[in-house]
Amino acid sequence: MATNKLSDRGLRVLLSTSLDKSKSYSDGGGLSVRVTASKSNSDDDNHLQWQFRYRLGGREAQQLTLVLGKYPELTLATARKEREQCRQWLAEGRDPKNERNLGRVESLKPLTVKSALLLWIENYASKNRKNSAKHLQQFNRWIFIKIGHLPISQIAKHHWIECFEARAAKYPVAAGYVLRNAQQALKYVKKRGYEVSGDIFELDFESIGARAQAKRSRRLLSDSSFQELVDLLKWLKQGEMPPYYNDLVQFLIIFGCRTQEIRLSKIDEWDFERMIWTVPSENNKNVLKDKKNGLSGEILRPIPERLKPWLLGLASKSANEYILGDVKADTAVSGWGSDICEKLGHEKKWTLHDLRRTVATGMNDLGIAPHIVELILGHTIQGVAGIYNRSQRIPEKLQALELWLDRLELLQSDTTNVVLLEKARA
After folding, report:
1. How many whole angstroms separate alpha carbon 265 and alpha carbon 394?
2. Is 51 helix (H, G, I), strand (E, B) or coil?
3. pLDDT tens, the chain, 426 aa long
4. Which residue of 5, 142, 208, 323 is 20 to 30 Å from 61, comparing CA positions?
5. Cα separation of 236 and 322, whole Å?
């Protein structure tokens, strides 16, 4: 079958040719141009309309006509590309009319930056991330307000940099957090078949204008003193802080757990027969990493016998299913915790998360094996050991917690013991 019979020169002649009736001219392969005389009496050009004729089935099937567009708005070269696309759809058993309509809807309503990131939030993050609401809040603040309405397929590197550079120097940690989440979100969107410019995947911390920060190493145990931890323990003993926070901080100091793990802890997680606290996978920050390694994602911590009266008292006083008797937002807890150092008169700022480093340092100072400390903290053991050795080491963890409680009680008792401990540590 001969194709490409028409030429631009011949088409331009048809625009001004005098016609008595409409006529079609074939370009071959199902493509033709239908020429209709202008209805006005002026010197307006004739109407040239590109048409693609095809059948869904054999020769006995009804011939269908798909209008592709008008010449010269749709050029000869473009019309031929449209023809080849239609022929490919037919070869794949698809109706060119349906496929073209679907493509037109997609082009008329392109996926915007906002809709792309929301796709990830709604379909993935909300089901797999505890902080999905925070992700959305940050996308709103950093990205949506600037480029949320623009098509994701057309966003270049400079658009992303403009989103971050104005605030990245002041909020470098948040900037890096938002960038990483946006990159993960758009990888997800790209895998779903949407067109995404790859420029965002080339960005790093420095390219968005954020200052690199040193890794935090704040602890309430310095190389020579226990005093900051002693101050906190004595303040807890005096009961001057609200009961909810007093209990929460005690959990953090004893178990080295994350605030999320105890803030969301329910009474039924505490088995006082087996003396085990089971942190469910949904409250474990490392749940996705654990699942990837074939682990359950649960954290099991033994309960020292001496804590049982206190824990049973908390459970009996609770008016709901939570061990702390209430569920406060993570922002409220972190905000309150960040002010404790000032109330205690500590010059160098510390946060509730720094208590985990304090517990880790204190346990290591007691000679507790590092892998036992990691298991108590709820960290995933890295490498082959983490995949093949899945023992919870309950007896070793219980022994470690007992030693740590002895140290805390000694620190809380009097300053004489503190001085002795510091000398022994030196």
Report:
1. 20
2. strand
3. 678 899 999 999 998 888 888 999 999 999 999 999 876 655 578 899 999 999 987 788 899 999 999 998 889 999 999 999 999 999 888 899 988 877 655 544 568 999 999 999 998 988 888 788 889 999 999 999 999 999 988 888 899 999 888 888 888 878 888 999 999 999 998 888 788 888 888 888 788 876 554 455 666 765 446 788 888 998 888 888 899 999 999 999 999 999 999 999 999 999 999 999 999 988 876 554 444 444 557 899 999 999 999 999 999 999 899 999 998 888 889 888 888 888 888 888 888 988 998 999 999 989 999 999 999 998 866 543 444 345 678 999 999 999 999 999 988 886 545 544 554 454
4. 5
5. 21
